[in-house]
Each structure stands twice: as structure tokens, then as C-alpha cells.
Specification:
With 82 residues, the protein is of the alpha+beta class. It has 2 helices and 7 strands. A hairpin with a 2-residue loop joins strand 3 and strand 4. The radius of gyration is 12 Å and the shape is globular. 21% of the residues are buried.
Length: 82
């Protein structure tokens, strides 16, 4: 498995299709639909064909030899106080 890159999210959970795009593993939502349906995406080492799967901090997504880990939403710095 490739070394995953941490990708912070704003909320507690994110859908698989959204995370693929956020992590720059794909270019579009249409591409997310295709690669997930084709069984090309691994979540925590297992194929997952549910584009709407809810991911939480610590989940690792792999596609085409690249990996990204969902980072705790608290790690996201939007520049706003509190």
C-alpha cells in the first residue's frame, strides 16, 4: 500500500465520492461514479462500490497506486476563530 496523504475534512464524515475529489484522486464527480462502480477504489484495504459510503477520520482510500487518509475535521484551519 502506498503511504497515504492526510486530507483534512470540515465535518465529522464525508462521502466517498466527495472525498475522492477533495483528495485530488479524481477530477470530477462523474469520474468518481465510474471508478467506484468499477471496483477500482479501496477503502481500508477492501473494494467498496458505494459512492455514498460515509468516511470518518482514519479511513484510508486508495485509487491507482495513490492513497489518502481522512484527517480529523478539527485539523482543518479555515482561518476563523473558535
Amino acid at each position: 500500500m502506498p503511504e497515504p496523504v492526510d486530507v483534512p475534512i470540515r465535518d465529522q464524515v464525508i462521502r466517498l465520492g466527495q472525498f475522492l475529489k477533495l483528495a485530488d484522486l479524481i477530477d470530477s464527480g462523474a469520474e468518481a461514479k465510474e471508478v467506484v462502480a468499477a471496483g477500482d477504489v479501496l477503502v481500508n484495504g477492501e473494494v467498496d462500490t458505494r459512492r455514498g459510503r460515509q468516511l470518518v477520520a482514519g479511513d484510508v482510500v486508495e485509487l491507482r497506486g495513490r492513497a489518502a487518509r481522512v484527517a480529523d475535521g478539527g485539523a482543518f484551519d479555515d482561518g476563523l476563530p473558535g
